[in-house]
Structure formats: structure tokens, C-alpha cells
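Worked example

This section walks through a single chain of length 488. The input is the sequence exactly as stored; nothing has been trimmed or padded.
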Amino acid sequence: MPLRTDLDPSDWASLRQQGHRMLDDMFDHLQTLRERPVWQPIPQALRQAFREPLPEQGQPLAALHERFMTQVLPYSVGNAHPRFMGWVQGGGTPEGMLAEMLAAGLNANLGGRDQMPLEVERQVVHWMAELFGFPTGASGLFVTGSSMANFLGLLVARTRALGPGSRRSGVAALPAPLVAYAAATVHGCIAQAMAMAGLGSDALRRVPVDGRHRMDLAVLERMVEADRAAGLQPFLVVGTAGTVDVGAVDDLAGIAALAGRERLWFHVDGALGALGMLSPGVAPLLAGIEQADSIALDFHKWGQVPYDAGFVLVRHADAQLEAFASPEAYLARHPRGLAAGSPWPCDLGPDLSRGFRALKTWFTFMAQGRERLGAAIAHTCRLARYLEQRLAQSPRLEVLAPVALNIVCFGLRGVDAEQVHPELVADLQESGVAVPSTTRVNGRTVIRVAIVNHRTTSADIDALFEAVLAWADTHLVRSPRRLETVTT
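Given that input, the structure is written out below as C-alpha cells.
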């Protein structure tokens, strides 16, 4: 008998039953997260099992589901868990999960064409323009994450500085090298974006920061002046709304004023903190973001949308169109039919094939509402302050960076931080009790706690705090003067 060439099931009723089991298992997973470890190491035998060759024959869906539940789900990164605090990753929501299922079933390509899914995406663009005080002519685009969103913002800035003809001539024809500016603590994706844009990572000037880990604007101004005097062409300044190391927020209003005087494109990397605008208590910390020319942000962080859902917002749509719109014949438009509805997302970025990321974002915002999402954001900041207070009251622990938003950096007093802190963090991760991470602050390795998950409570902060002290009791000995690593 010849093989069937369609890939639909022969028994839809059985598929429906299996699908309900799969959905119920994921609901159970989310409902009982606290009963499981945050993370656990992958057994080597299991890792090896996923080196099997490409299968010649299909396997029953039920067997694949069982394998997922026993071999994949228990060994994921764990960011849905309330005690995942190692990196800036949101916890997702059931509504977002269901929307992702609907989007997959629809299987729409959102590169273009006249279709209602694009109106959903445009609705979110309108919401973001409203949230950040951008004009009605603003444009936006869903991308994988803020690394890509920052890259697109940089490309728009580059095209605006050089003119649309630079898309043909390239950077080799530049009359003077372009240079950009960002705080020394800026995310590494900005330097990578400079490299990918053909400008070189060395063309990103790293501006020193002040005692609050914010860009030093006086130094920035002197650097711009020196570069102009050297015959270079300053074109971009990147402010950060929540640095990845300590959560610091640059003086965005001050950067905006300087960018206006110096005729620089003002871009904000808001991957971590931009959605703080949803919270009346957090929004004032972001004053000046409304003056940006472009903003990168992640809905999958503080917005709690399932991965991935990055976004770039540009103040004026013509600047984004100038950087990306293409006249190719296969993208020709027409006033009627599927070729209507211009401009399309492919006019605003490089992708022609795009998933329906907007649906899970739309579902999350519609199901939760601005007020509740803002309250969840404010709650994570309160938990950071709570942890800061507990640390300040402990004779064995110390806060090692100012707490601006929802990130707390701390360490054990009187230890070799380079040796002790990484081991402590790795042991806590492997224990499954809590997941912090490490970063470097002022040249020292510190313990970093990023509180992003809407499920996290003060009890989870207490559990982390007590786990750190318990580790110290087990692995370190006390002396009258300081803590010392146990040696054998």
C-alpha cells in the first residue's frame, strides 16, 4: 500500500483525546510548579538518548507525549518556577500558552498580506505607542527578543544618519566612520549589533558609569566632542532601562536632551525595564523614555508572555520604512486582494517569514489588563527591596550594588568571592531549591538575584535567603574575624 501523502491523522477522535491529555498535563505542570525542583541536572544517559538518528517511521503521538513528560519537561531551564531568579526571564501565563496553541493551529505567516492577524499585531503596536507616549505615526515590529530589537533600532539609526542610499553603497562608502555611545555596563548585544551592522564593535564608545551604575553624561558629552574633533561621525546613543547586571536605569531624560543637542539618534534598550511603564510606581524611574527615537523591549520578561516575544518601537514609521522597505516584485502590492494592507511587517524588518507572536501578547494583555500586569511588576520590585532589607540585617551577608528595580546583587562577607560565590550558586542550582546566578560588580563576582516571575512571593525570597545561609554553614567555617573556606 502506498504511503499517505497528507499528514493529518486518520483518527481525529483519538487525536482530540490525546490533545486534551496533553493540555491537561501542562495545566497540571503549571498548577504544581512548587512541588518540583526549580532545575535539575540532565542525566548523561538521557542526554545520549537524544543522539538517535532521524527516524524512518513515525511513532504514536501518545508515546512522544510520554517521552516529553518524562525526559524533557523535568529538565528544562525552570523559568516558570517561582524560585527561578538567576536570569531576567518571565514565567509565562496559561492564557499565553493557550494563545500559542491557537497561533500554531492557525499557522499564519505574518510577513505580510492583508490578514486579520496583522491587525492584531498593529493593535499591540498602537498599545505600545500609547504606553510610551509616542505619536500616532509610530511603528513597531515583533522579533525574537531584544537582541534583535536592538539590532533593528541600530540599523534604523544608521540609515537615518547616512541616508537610504547607504543601503546600496554600504559602509565602505562612508565619508567618516560612525561611532555610537552606551554605558560601560550596556548589554553585550549592542556591541554585537555594531559588529553585525558592519561598523565594528570598536566603534561603540563605552561611557563610564557613576556610583548608581548610570551612564556619566558629562563624560559622554566630552567623548562626543572629542570624536567630532577627530573627524568621526557620532550617530547613536543607547540608554539602558534596567541594566542586565544590577538593574540600573540611565538618566534617560538627560540622555534625550544631550542627543537632541548633538543630533544623535536616541535608542533605549528596555529589555529588562521598559514595561515598568505599566506600573504607576515604577514608571517615574523611566522618565525620558518617551523622548526616545526607538525602544527595544521584551514582552517575555516583565510582560510574562511565553517565549519568544521581543519588540522594537520606532517613533516615526518613515525612518523604519526607509531602513527596510523593499521593492522586490514578489512583494508587489495591490489595493485589493491579499496583496493589500501595505505597509507590511517585511517593510519594517528583515524577515519575510514571521510567526504570530502578537497573539500570545494580545491574549496576555487582554486577559490580565494593564492594572494587573503593572501590579505584578511592582510586586517584583517590592520583593527586591524585601531581600535587600533582609541582607542588610544579616551579619554574614552584604548588598553589593544599589537596588534600582528588581535585581539584587549580594555576597558573603569575608570570603574569596571568586572561589566561593560561583560554587555556592552552582550548588543551589543543583539542589533545585532556588536558582540565583552570578555577575561581576566593581571587579568582584557577586550573587545575583533577578526577580521577574509573577509567581514569586516573599516566602520564595525567604527560602533563597535561608538556603544561602545553610550553604555557608555547611561549606564554610566561622572564625572570630571572618568566614573562611573549609580546607582539607
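What to look for: Residues 357-392 form the longest helix (36 residues).
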